[in-house]
Specification:
The protein is mostly beta strands. Helix content is 9%, strand content 24%. The longest helix is centred in the last third of the chain and has 12 residues.
Length: 258
C-alpha cells in the first residue's frame, strides 16, 4: 500500500477548520451564510457548478467550506465544499444558445453533497424579470463567471477547420459599405491653408509694412531669421529646439543658436 493511500485510509481528524471565504481556480467563493450577513452586498459569490462523474452537470450554492487534515508522513489538507444540489432532472437547456435554466426549489435527494474545491466553477443565477408567465416563473438563468487572471482555454468551437489538413478559417466582421466625412473645422477652430477660421470681425488686421513683409516671407518659406531686428522679432514664437542639450533658456541670444 502506498503512503498516500495509507494516509487516506487512516482518515482525517475530527476537528476541521471552516471558512466563510476561499479563493480557488481564479474565483473567490463565499458561503451563503456569509452573504446573508451582508444584505447590502453588491456581488454574489456563492454559486457553484461542477461536472459529475455520471456526465451530469450539478448546480448549487456553497453552504460550508471545510479544511480537512490528514496526518502522516505527507500531511494533506484538502479543501471541501458542501453543497446540496439542485435537482439536475429539473433543468432546461437550449444548446444552440448556450442557455441553462434551473429551479432553486427542487433539491436533489441523497448524501453526496461534497466536492473538492478544485472541482468548483463559479456561477450566478438570475431570475426572469417577468414572473407572471408560467413558463418563466421560478426559473433562473445560469451565468458562468470568468476566472480572474486566467484566459479561457480555446476549443474546437472557436474555429472552423478541416480535420484532414487543419486549415483554419477565422471569422472577421466586415466593415460597413460607403464612406462618410466629419467636418470639425468650425467646432475646434482648425487651421486651414495656414489661415485661421474666425467668426465676425474679431480678427486683428496687420497694417505695419515690415510685419506684412515678414508674414509674406514666412508664408513662402524665404525668411532669414538672422536679418530680423530684435524689436520686430520680439513677438515671434521661440523657434529654438528645446531638445538641444546645448540650448540655454537663460541666454537665448547666444550666437550659436542662430
Amino acid at each position: 500500500m502506498s503512503a498516500e493511500l495509507r494516509l487516506l485510509a487512516d482518515g482525517f481528524a475530527y476537528r476541521v477548520r471552516t471558512f466563510s471565504s476561499y479563493d480557488v481556480n481564479g474565483y473567490r467563493f463565499h458561503t451563503t451564510r456569509h452573504e446573508q450577513r451582508r444584505p447590502n452586498r453588491a456581488t454574489t459569490d456563492s454559486g457553484v457548478f461542477t461536472h459529475g462523474d455520471d456526465v451530469v452537470d450539478y448546480y448549487r450554492r456553497v453552504e460550508e467550506i471545510y479544511e480537512l487534515s490528514f496526518y502522516g508522513c505527507k500531511p494533506l489538507n484538502p479543501i471541501i465544499f458542501k453543497c446540496h444540489w439542485f435537482d439536475p432532472a429539473v433543468t432546461r437547456k437550449t444548446p444552440n444558445l448556450g442557455l441553462v435554466e434551473i429551479r432553486q426549489d427542487c433539491e436533489l435527494a441523497g448524501e453526496d453533497v461534497y466536492i473538492m474545491a478544485q472541482q468548483a466553477t463559479q456561477v450566478y443565477y438570475l431570475p426572469y424579470p417577468c414572473q407572471t408567465k408560467e413558463n418563466l416563473k421560478g426559473w433562473y438563468v445560469v451565468n458562468k463567471v470568468s476566472p480572474h487572471g486566467k484566459l479561457p482555454m480555446p476549443n474546437d468551437d472557436d474555429y472552423v477547420f478541416n480535420p484532414n489538413t487543419y486549415a483554419r478559417e477565422f471569422f472577421q466582421e466586415e466593415g460597413l459599405e460607403g464612406t462618410f466625412a466629419i467636418d470639425l473645422t468650425e467646432p475646434i477652430r482648425m487651421e486651414v491653408d495656414c489661415e485661421r477660421v474666425v467668426e465676425g470681425d474679431d480678427a486683428d488686421e496687420v497694417e505695419n509694412a515690415k510685419d506684412m513683409e515678414l508674414l509674406r516671407q514666412l508664408h513662402i518659406g524665404d525668411v532669414n531669421y538672422a536679418n530680423i531686428p530684435p524689436s520686430d522679432g520680439a513677438n515671434l514664437i521661440d523657434m529654438y529646439d528645446s531638445d538641444d542639450p546645448s540650448y540655454d533658456p537663460a541666454n537665448p541670444d547666444h550666437d550659436e543658436y542662430f
